[in-house]
Amino acid sequence: MNLLYTLGKWIGGIFLTLIALLLVGYFLISHNINQRIQKHYAFSAETLPIPHDKAMLERGGHLATIKGCTDCHGKNLAGKIFLNDGAVGRLVASNLTRGKGGRPADYSTSDWLMALRHGVDRTGRPLLFMPSHESTVLAEPDLQALIAYCQQVPSVDNELPDHDVGPVAKIMTYLGKMPLLPVEMINHQKPMVARADTSLGIGQGKYLSITCTGCHKPDLKGGDPVAPGFPPSPNLTSTGATGRWTLAQFVNTLRTGKTPGGHQINNEHMPWKMTAAYSDNELASLYQYFRSLK
Ligand code: HEC
Ligand code: HEC
């Protein structure tokens, strides 16, 4: 009896110690992430002329779709809560229009570039979960087109709540498994790329593939799911299943979400409604680029 009692006390003690250690661990992680979220950055302002001609606006509208801006910020760019999950938290994509809750009247081209190239707002506050590490490599004419398009969308009043970063998001960010702080992932010294390759081929495929690397990983060989509840991201190189697909099968999958094997992909997991908007030329370039990777 006495022995059991002592054993029980021991086990209880170990259990309480473990809980205390976990709590201290979480406290330290949470403190670390809060400090990184509140850090203030200062980058030198840049600007570009923004011509609002028809060709520019068309290209800009196309980019806003194929770069996923409209997925997160909504079709009308008026912003939305795009993730709301108790443990992960609430992530809110800003209202990019000039309506209530949106960009202030004096939001300049420099402010757009600060967000797209450096991942901070105009006060130097890190933008959370806004994939600036991807938009930062957009070529100059593409940045011009995107900004031209965004600046002229109709104003929509949409006041949104603040972010609420939950414990799972903090832990995943701490472990480097969630891109909560793109400002930390950017080489801020890199100058703007002068122009993009837009002819059919591997060069254009590589330029476009930056949008796929967030989930399919920088080497495009796939890996761990990007967020809890997601399936793992498949390998897109010549050594993966897609390496055996014909161009027609590849294009069909990215336009319909249905793989040659008959699996229907959920647009929430893999944004095929976004890839559906890529031109034939762009999809064929991606196909060639993926095949070139071993
Ligand atoms: C994965 C979702 C996602 C995608 C894709 C995305 N954004 Fe964002 N964006 C966000 C979130 C979230 C914020 C709010 C960040 C914050 O305030 O902490 C944001 C903020 C912004 C801001 C506000 C900056 C400020 O000054 O407050 C701009 C500008 C912006 N995004 C433009 C774009 C453009 C243009 C694209 C397409 C190239 C794009 N975003 C794609 C999620 C996204
Ligand atoms: C938000 C994350 C995300 C982004 C961004 C993304 N993918 Fe995916 N992709 C996935 C996931 C997850 C799957 C697996 C879906 C499933 O199994 O249902 C997938 C599946 C695929 C497949 C099918 C592969 C197979 O073996 O079945 C192809 C092809 C593909 N993605 C291409 C792309 C391309 C091209 C881009 C960039 C233009 C891209 N993806 C961007 C997450 C993403």
Short key terms for the protein model shown above:
mainly alpha; single chain; 3 strands; 294 residues; three-stranded antiparallel sheet; binds heme C
What this model shows, in words?
By secondary structure, the protein is mainly α. The protein folds into two domains: 54-185; 202-292, Cytochrome Bc1 Complex, Chain D, domain 2, CATH 1.10.760. It is built from twelve helices and three strands; from the N terminus they run αααββαααβαααααα. It has helices spanning 2-38, 54-66, 69-73, 109-118, 132-135, 140-151, 167-174, 202-208, 210-216, 247-256, 272-275, 280-292; strands spanning 80-85, 89-93, 164-165. The protein has a three-stranded antiparallel sheet with strand order 1-2-3. Strand 1 and strand 2 (89-93) form a beta hairpin. Helix 1 crosses helix 7, helix 2 (54-66) crosses helix 6 and helix 8 (202-208) crosses helix 12 (280-292). The chain is globular. The mean pLDDT is 95. One heme C binds at residues 67-69, 71-73, 91-94, 96, 111-112, 115-116, 121-122, 127-131, 135, 146, 150, 163.
